Fold this protein.
Amino acid sequence: MLESRVATGSEIRAACQDLCDALFVPGAALPSVYLLIGGRLRCQAARGYSQVVDGFPPLVGVIGRVVASGEMVFVEDVTQDPDFIGAVPDLAAEVCVPIVVHGRVAGAVNIESRTRLDPAYVAIARHAAVDLGRRIETLGGLPGDSVSQRLTRAVIDLSALGHTDLIEERSVEAAIELSGLSSAAIARVDAVTGDLTVTAADGPLADGLRTLSADDLGAMAAWVQSGTSSYFPGGSDAPIEHAFLVGVGVVALSVHPLTVGGGAIGILLTANERMTPHVPARIEALELLAAPTAAALRTAELLVELEKRASQDPLTGLGNLTTFLADLEDALAAGDRTVACLLVDLDGFKAVNDREGHPAGDRLLRSLAAQLSAALRTGDRAYRLGGDEFGIIADLPTAVDAGVLADRLVAAGRAAGTTVSVGAATAVGGSAASLRARADRALYVAKAEGRDRAAHAEPQTLPEDDRRAG
């Protein structure tokens, strides 16, 4: 009786409801059917529920676990299964059986029960899931996602991504899905040169698309500079100007501008190895993808810029005081290496500003920052702490090496056309505030002794409790 009832459904949802009606036991077994659609498990039918849980992500709940593994799960006591998600109260047991369509797990038949589930009932549920899978095959299999569904998911994904690489990868993936073409790429405008460069590509034509020159990409950008899209279905009538595309195996091509606030930041390309007719709905979908792609890329770049401004000194490009303090604490936290803190003060800087003006003072600070950076080893870090004071953090083999580094910083000041005083201190673990204070005291010694020189605090051996305080 159950098999015939399931098989009578003339549509997939009707077949799912037939199964739920057949498996429903009033006051006990509550059946439901979930199918994997658009990357989530969607409830197609249910019986006996006052509330339905829908939209299971992969691996979530018992149902997600079953679909991921392809194995039936029989939970005799739901209170003992951490994955159990109940839709109604007072549930005692659950059995979930995968639905296989054309050899792939396409969903699950799920039965929750207020009473213990008899093994004979579980066997019936297993047969019902097999029968439903066959019926879905007879009806042509699960329907594919619509263009609007794929586009909506892509836009949602793009809005949640915060890194340009991830945004570009997801946009290229979505472009292939929406276009029906085999390959896609994004070319971005270089902020310095203004040239276009392919920054992401996927599909069999990806390698060829990556070899396109700045001139080739610029020619394509010119096709869409007015804000239109351009589509080339391919064929023998392709003009000679498209020879560079033929050279990389491209026959059909779609080009869409990436614009934000009226400014072009790149182009979105989709391509195929064979002639492909123009389908207006696909072009519209790609246009609707290009807009949020451009917006997401610009937002990600602005966030990076804000983070950069929060951590860098705007005049010199070095780290700022906040970054210096955090990095010094991190360096000392390891407690297993010699950390040097060096403070550098420009001698007579106020007189430079008074005599030559603040623009000249700013030029001197930038020159000194460049010379100090050049004097450092790989891994050493320089910061502008404010005014004419700079800080250096270095991991050193021994405390003696701090003196060598301090002398190089004094020489860097002379190379910048000025003189500096340097105070150096070292520690293995301990407090960042204590280490900085010792370097500061050494700096004042250097100034008191005549400037244009370095002074070194005595290496400090810290007691165990002070090391932990750092």
